[in-house]
TrEMBL record:
InterPro entries: FA_desaturase_dom (IPR005804)
Upper lineage: Bacteria, Pseudomonadati, Bacteroidota, Sphingobacteriia, Sphingobacteriales
Membrane-spanning intervals of the chain: 12-32, 38-57, 126-146, 152-173
Biological processes, Gene Ontology terms: lipid metabolic process
Coiled-coil residues: none
Name used for this protein in its record: Beta-carotene ketolase (CrtW type)
Length: 225
């Protein structure tokens, strides 16, 4: 039997995936007008929903989407596939290495150098050439039915912006520089609205490392200051 938190986790994951699907299918036929401010708003909405897919997959990596391992991993794989054709198992292994070896040479998320060098190394750790080829094939297949500009603005661009959002709030801000606490992690100042809008509370990063079994939608409860 699934517990209450497990059922809630599945429902929230379903909502995130459904909103992403609803928005992207609606926007594929939307008439592009660069003078319309809604265009830029929808790009940001799509970026945030892409980030939601990844954060949901991240919860699955910690087994917090569902108490059923089969359901949990299936939802994780759906989210990583929709995000950028990622294999869930590979991301899962690397993420647990990050938690085990945080802020060391063995940490796949850690890098020396400035923001841009770290970001490029971060992308290289997770993105493979076969993914790029597969995404290119999907793009060229979809443009048979969908305007190419719509594909770029609402499918390609938001996913790229989402990688910056995830990296900045989930890796760079909490992990660059030196930290003296046991998790070698910083944390965003307490502001639940900004924390949700910026990265689904993932900026409360020390709290996440301190309680990785807490799903994103309950992480705000752990924030003390």
């Amino acid at each position: 039997m699934l517990g209450t938190q497990s059922k809630t986790g599945i429902i929230i994951a379903f909502i995130v995936i459904s909103l992403w699907c609803l928005c992207i299918f609606s926007l594929m036929s939307w008439e592009i007008n660069f003078k319309n401010p809604l265009l830029y708003f929808f790009i940001l909405v799509q970026m945030h929903l892409y980030t939601g897919l990844f954060i949901t997959a991240h919860d699955a990596m910690h087994g917090t989407v569902s108490s059923s391992r089969t359901i949990n991993n299936a939802i994780g794989q759906i989210c990583t596939a929709l995000y950028a054709c990622f294999p869930f198992s590979s991301l899962n292994n690397k993420h647990h290495e990050h938690h085990k070896y945080v802020h060391t040479d063995k940490d796949p998320d850690y890098s020396e150098g400035n923001f841009f060098i770290w970001y490029l190394n971060f992308i290289k750790q997770y993105l493979s050439w076969w993914q790029v080829v597969l995404m290119a094939l999907i793009f060229n297949l979809l443009k048979t039915w969908v305007p190419e500009l719509n594909l770029f603005l609402f499918w390609v661009l938001p996913s790229l912006l989402s990688t910056l959002q995830l990296f900045y709030f989930g890796t760079w801000l909490p992990h660059h520089g030196e930290h003296t606490n046991k998790h070698q992690s910083g944390s965003q100042s307490k502001n639940h609205i900004l924390a949700f809008l910026s990265c689904y509370f993932f900026g409360y990063h020390y709290e996440h490392h301190d309680s990785p079994g807490t799903p994103w939608w309950k992480l705000w409860e752990l924030k003390k200051s």
